[in-house]
Input
Amino acid sequence: MSARAPALEAGSAVPQPYRVIARHTDTADTVTLTIEPDAVPLERFAPGQFAMLTAYGIGEVPISVSAIATPEQGRARRLVHTLRAVGAVTRALHAARPGDVIGARGPFGTTWDVASAVGHDVVIVAGGIGLAPLRPVLHAVLADRPRYGRVVVLIGGRTPADLLYREEMAKISAAGAEVAVIVDQPADGWTGQVGVVTTLIPPAHFDPDRTVAFVCGPEIMMRFTAQALIARGVPAPRVRVSLERNMRCGVGWCGHCQLGPLLVCRDGPVIDYAHSEPLISVREL
Output
């Protein structure tokens, strides 16, 4: 299992007002919002944790942080979230503009436990918007680069237009990380690879015996990716996946996130594959 979040604090059930200070359009249906507190800031988030974001008058949804505030920004002064418009709440958040106020509470959930990968090769495998929760892992590793081995980033998307952070990934590749990208459906002018992200694993340059892998994307993608990494020789306890099933309250009170014996918002979302494999391998569990 990955590092557990701190105990729930008083007030975690009440959204704090946060004001949108920046909005970046990533794709046709995906934006990255940077928000700052109007009043008391939330505790500092760690990579892998999520906030419950509120569109006032509509509802709230769990969204992982896609960047972590730096210490000089104070006690989590800023939160950064990348989200896709797929329902009423995320459509309302997607429509937010600088100056608008939304609610936020957290941090919730387990972390990627990036520090435990010190001295290891780091392999990041993302499917679609799954790159957003993994982005803080990449930032943390690159900020402390000498303490890690090889850095490999494998990205899959539906189409070239759906790929996130393309300029940032190009800079990371130019800085020495191994970055490979593949899409399901090419578009005019696409010269890259076509297929599923698991096909990027066999040729990737990493030592399975000294690798920690971080995986996020659709559940079926994570299952096949974990199996491919294990077949390559990475131990299952060192393959971490992020499960985000039906989380509604953020703290395990309502039970909507139950997955077998787990409450995902309390025991996850980050769980090593040794623990998650018997659960996500069962259809409709």
